[in-house]
Amino acid sequence: MTAALPAALPWDYDVRKGQEMPPGIRLLRVTDIAFTQKQVNDSFSHEQRPILELIESVLSGAAHPRDIPLIRVAWHQGQFWAIDNRRLFCYKHCRLERLPVEVIRWEDQHEFDSWM
Fold first, then answer.
1. Is the whole-model pTM more than 0.70?
2. Which domain of life is it from (predicted)?
C-alpha cells in the first residue's frame, strides 16, 4: 500500500489563494513576487558586494539560489511582496522560473511598516 500524497505539496499553490498559504519554506514563481521598493541599491550593504556579481554567479552556475539566504515574502493586498529586494532583483534579472522563499506573515515583520 502506497502512502497518499498530501492535498497540496509545498511547491504547489494557487496565487489567487495566497492568503491561505501557511508560513514556511515554499517554492514560488519569481513572477508572483513583487518589490516593496521602487529602486534597489547596486550593492549589498553588509558586504559592499555589487549585485552584478550575484547575477553573474547565478547565470554562470557558480551560485545557486538554494546556497543564498532565502528571500522573505508575505501575502498582502492580493500579492506576494518581498523584503529582500536586491536578491529578488537579481533573480528576476536572471529570469529564474521558481525560487525557494520563506513565506512569513505580513503583520509580523517591521520591515513592511515603512512600505504601507
1. yes
2. Eukaryota
